[in-house]
Known about the structure:
Layout: E1 8-11, H1 16-25, E2 29-33, E3 36-40, H2 41-48, H3 53-68, E4 77-84
Parallel strand pairs: 1-4
Antiparallel strand pairs: 2-3, 3-4
Amino acid sequence: MNDLRRLHVEIAGLDESALQSAIRQHDLGQVHDEGAIDLQVETLRQLAGDQDEQWVTAFADMLSYARSKGWMTDGEHVRAHCVRVAATPFEL
């Protein structure tokens, strides 16, 4: 999660039911509608791991921007749009 100017979730090979199950199973947030997911901010921080001060500032700026656009309604989730991508075949 290095590009904090365009937050989105890339989805490959999951139908809507499987997507909802995966989001719940990994405690990532909740599916808002077919085109968006409300992601838990704290989970995003944890997934990013240890980051430098510049990243922490950029992350806070991203959340401020999202809040100004109405993409954060409760302060704990940020809305990200879904991008369907082609599944890449697994090769051994």
